[in-house]
């Protein structure tokens, strides 16, 4: 379990130049339930898979609103994620009180990264074992950031974290180039499709996923960050399944008609040779 006693303290470097406790925190993110984020020019969408510890318990909340213009989705230790979401909420409130303006999303992600980085250089702190997707809207448009337990943060067009997130990232990598021009409904459908890739055979329903959206409407008004109602999510899932089944049904009908034509051709009397 221990790597030559170099992981007993977060400030102890291994001879290879690694901080193992930071790597353990990043591994906790990989073990968490999957979260997906994607954005267009005007909207950002967060989606998370809801997984319960047992059949007798409810799932833990994975998507949090931090302000009218921003929210987060987390993978890893949910308790750490709640602490960080409260920190982000306080930062947004304080900035709005002082400057009478919403905190830019880039600065929000930077402050979160600074708070996480402090835990990598203090012997009396451990790294936060949670990764956060920060989605929001400001004067420059919609943004999506991934904040790592190491203190690094990156801006993405689309990204996925958590358990089996590689399947979701593969799906997003095939389609991300067109996301700038996507409508909100198209973003939601792709977010649900990416979550479906991580479920490993489990059927996607409104009960095992959470979707939230923030953006700017055509008239310029801001659509506040909010979770989408379960009934609407189920309607979108049903429409996606119907769209997937339509080509298969058409192909089956075409195959059956071709087989009928072949049968008609074999019914003719054999030639007398």
TrEMBL record:
Primary location group = cytoplasm
Describe its assembly.
The 20S proteasome core is composed of 28 subunits that are arranged in four stacked rings, resulting in a barrel-shaped structure. The two end rings are each formed by seven alpha subunits, and the two central rings are each formed by seven beta subunits.
Q: What processes in GO biological process is this protein linked to? A: ubiquitin-dependent protein catabolic process
Q: Which Pfam families match?
A: Proteasome, Proteasome_A_N
Question: Which family is it part of?
Answer: Belongs to the peptidase T1A family.
Q: State the name under which the record lists this protein.
A: Proteasome subunit alpha type
Cellular component per GO, a single term: nucleus
Low complexity composition-biased segments: 245-255
Task: Say yes or no: keyword Cytoplasm present.
Answer: yes
Tell me the segments the record calls region Disordered. 241-273
Native species of this protein? Answer: Zizania palustris
Q: What are the UniProt keywords, alphabetically?
A: Cytoplasm, Nucleus, Proteasome
Entry annotated with the keyword Ribosomal protein: no
What job does this protein perform? The proteasome is a multicatalytic proteinase complex which is characterized by its ability to cleave peptides with Arg, Phe, Tyr, Leu, and Glu adjacent to the leaving group at neutral or slightly basic pH.
**Compartment(s) where it occurs, according to its Swiss-Prot or TrEMBL record:** Cytoplasm; Nucleus
């Amino acid at each position: 379990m221990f790597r030559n006693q170099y992981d007993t303290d977060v400030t102890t470097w291994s001879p290879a130049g690694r901080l193992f406790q930071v790597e353990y925190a990043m591994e906790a993110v990989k073990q968490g339930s999957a979260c997906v984020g994607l954005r267009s020019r005007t909207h950002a969408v967060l989606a998370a898979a809801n997984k319960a510890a047992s059949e007798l318990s409810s799932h833990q909340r994975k998507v949090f609103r931090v302000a009218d213009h921003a929210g987060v989705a987390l993978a890893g230790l949910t308790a750490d994620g709640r602490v960080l979401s409260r920190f982000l909420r306080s930062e947004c409130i304080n900035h709005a009180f002082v400057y009478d303006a919403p905190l830019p999303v880039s600065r929000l992600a930077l402050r979160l990264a600074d708070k996480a980085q402090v835990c990598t250089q203090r012997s009396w702190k451990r790294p936060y074992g949670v990764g956060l997707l920060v989605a929001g809207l400001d004067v420059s448009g919609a943004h999506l950031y991934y904040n790592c337990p190491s203190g690094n943060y990156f801006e993405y067009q689309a990204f996925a974290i958590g358990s089996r997130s590689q399947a979701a990232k593969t799906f997003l990598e095939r389609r991300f180039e067109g996301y700038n021009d996507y409508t909100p409904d198209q973003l939601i459908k792709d977010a649900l499709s990416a979550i479906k890739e991580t479920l490993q055979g489990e059927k996607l329903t409104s009960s095992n996923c959470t979707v939230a959206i923030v953006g700017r409407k055509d008239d310029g008004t801001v659509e506040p960050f909010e979770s989408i109602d379960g009934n609407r999510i189920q309607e979108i899932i049903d429409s996606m399944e119907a769209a997937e089944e339509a080509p298969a049904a058409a192909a089956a009908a075409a195959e059956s008609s071709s087989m009928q034509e072949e049968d008609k051709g074999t019914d003719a009397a054999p030639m007398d040779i």
